[in-house]
Amino acid sequence: MTTVKQQIKPYVFFQKPIFYLCFLVQTDSVNRQQAIVNFKKIWEKELPDYPFQYELLGDSYKTTYKKEVTQANLTLIFSFLSIVIICLGLFAVTSLLITKRTREIGIRKVNGAKVIELLIMLDSDFVKWFGFAFIIASPVAWYAMNKWLQNFTYKTDLSWWVFAVSGAIVLAVAVLTVTPQSWRAATRNPVEALRYE
Fold it and tell me: Can you tell me whether residue 48 is helix, strand or coil?
């Protein structure tokens, strides 16, 4: 069995008498062990001169693609941890920024600013920085993914929408992290912010 990283070679099929001793059998996963025992009994009864050997196709695939499965699992775990750490950092930065701008928010509310205007003002700073980060990260990600795909003989082309969707997801996570704190600051009574001024 070969992996998807190797090119498919030409095959020649011919009839050879020994091949009649090889069988491909499909079983359900629930009764697999019992099926193997039954096959072994039948084999030993009908072909006692030949040893009974079997290999599960699923196990062969797992062995062949063990590296890729491990890499995918590690990528998933570290991606999740990265997102959690980023959200915690973004939450902390938002708290600090809103604390520093409490007086400004209070003055804007006293002068008639609406809650939606304050939300746009507070969230636009983060959206701008995420836009810059996306512009920087997209070519780097494209290059890294393109290099990784070079390991495979048969591969797909990278589409622009993959990067657009990932950028939209990151932006949505950022906005969902920032907006609750911005909402709390925008709906607070301006008297609380300005009472010591």
Answer: coil
Cα dihedral sign for 130, 131, 133, 138?
positive
Q: What are phi and psi of 56, to 5 degrees?
A: -85, 130
Residue 112 in tokens:
């008639």
Helices (H), 51-151: 57-64, 66-100, 102-110, 115-149
User: What distance in Å separates the CA atoms of residue 176 and residue 127, rounded to the nearest whole number?
Assistant: 12
Amino acid at 147: K
CB 177 within 8 A of CB 94: yes
Q: How far apart are CA 141 and CA 162, in angstroms?
A: 11
176 pLDDT tier (thresholds 50, 70, 90): confident
How distant, in Å, are the alpha carbons of 80, 133, 134, 191 from that of 143?
22, 16, 14, 52
Q: Write the pLDDT tens digit of every residue in 137-147.
A: 999 999 998 88
Q: How confident is the model at residue 123 (pLDDT cuts 50, 70, 90)?
A: confident
Domain ranges of the chain: 17-62, 65-194
Number of other residues whose CB lies within 10 A of the CB of residue 75: 10
Number of helices (H) and strands (E) in the chain: give both, helices first.
7, 0
